[in-house]
Specification:
Shape: globular
Number of helices: 6
Radius of gyration: 20 Å
Structural class: alpha+beta
Largest sheet: 3 strands, antiparallel
Order of helices and strands: HHHEHHEEH
Strand order of the largest sheet: 1-3-2
Mean pLDDT: 90
């Protein structure tokens, strides 16, 4: 917030950002260097376990892109009384993509299915670190087999 405030030429306050952003900013001010090192160590341990999975001979991991159907309008609305609520809701949806965002593993979401109401359903493929080539080759083959570029959801 300090850097953004410097860009604007003034100190930022809770009214300048969403409640979740401000709550995370305030929480960050309570953390120590030891907390940061502990968090980094936990992510590194997790990253190494994923790297080992790939090293054990796996080429791809297939999962749904989202753990739940898309959020309804307003479901992730900001809330002054419960600023972390949108974070918790988002985590429920992104449970299958977050591990790869955290560890730096390449992943791709492909719209390979459609719901009964016409919404695209994504399939996520993840590969080992630095193996974007595998993802792009497989995605190209899947797009050839089941093209999606001209697919449009039904308009209600």
């Amino acid at each position: 917030m300090r850097l953004a405030g410097n860009w604007l030429g003034r100190k930022l306050g809770p009214g300048d950002v969403e409640p979740l952003t401000w709550a995370l900013y305030e929480r960050a001010g309570t953390l120590t260097a030891d907390d940061l090192l502990d968090a980094q160590a936990a992510v590194m341990t997790y990253r190494r376990s994923l790297h080992q999975w790939w090293a054990d001979g796996w080429d791809l991991l297939l999962t749904p892109t989202m753990a739940l159907p898309p959020a309804r309008i307003g479901e992730m609305a900001q809330n002054l009384e419960a600023p972390y609520a949108p974070f918790a809701v988002a985590g429920s949806f992104a449970a299958l993509t977050a591990p790869f965002n955290t560890t730096g593993q390449p992943a791709i979401s492909l719209p390979l299915h459609v719901s009964a109401t016409g919404l695209p359903i994504g399939v996520q493929l993840a590969a080992g670190y630095g193996r974007e080539d595998v993802l792009i080759r497989v995605a190209a083959q899947l797009e050839t087999a089941a093209p999606w570029a001209d697919r449009r959801p039904a308009v209600a």
